[in-house]
Amino acid sequence: MALHIYVGSLTRYYAGDWETVVQKQAREAGEVPPARSAEAEEDALRDPADIRPIVVEWRQGLAAALKESITDPFDWDHSSDAPYATDQLTRDALWALRLWAAYTEHPELPRPTGPVADPATDPAFLLSNNPEGTSAYHQIVRDIEIWLPWTFAFTFRAVTAAGGGKVGLGSVPTLRAQLAELNQKTWRASSEGTLASWRKEAPPPGAPIEIAAKYAFGVLYPLAALAEKRRPLVKLDE
Length: 238
Hints:
Helices cover 42% and strands 15% of the residues. The protein is α+β, with helices and mostly antiparallel strands and 238 residues long. The model has no long low-confidence stretch (mean pLDDT 92).
């Protein structure tokens, strides 16, 4: 299953005024773009004028909850016309990246070469994804849906601006830093050309864990770096 990665304002995201990579490619080829799952929700708000106050209120709630942990002004661009960027990866590739990080953190365990049948029960993953969140790669291994554009050394769970159940939230700058450290300790990729070659094509199911992890890294790191520079948030989208 594809996971879309959205970098931009939540007002624009919830208004549906953005395209996935697949939708953009279809439109440019003169084809009918496939709908995202959220676009099928008939009762969803679509007017940015209605959405923006909800997003701002959500942000203010987070700021109040985190005021003891984050001292910088807790704000970002909520506008409906803010620039955005997207890409996508597979859920298997994201799991491969999580496992690659976990085994890098725990070299005492033999790293698997092929795909892991149940990565959520993998011994290295369980050690890194501990309840205390003390992993050196907690922004990578933990189940996070939204990374916020502020630096903090923890993850937490909260409802989204759209409501519903709680999801994992993390930090964009800390994610970017942890991805960079993981690369430095393992692959040492130093050029955009290398990352572009890694993300050129999604690996097939059953691909070696390192190949799938490189693909996920090649997709995620440039977006995390872009988000750190522009200061929007990063959101995973089914």
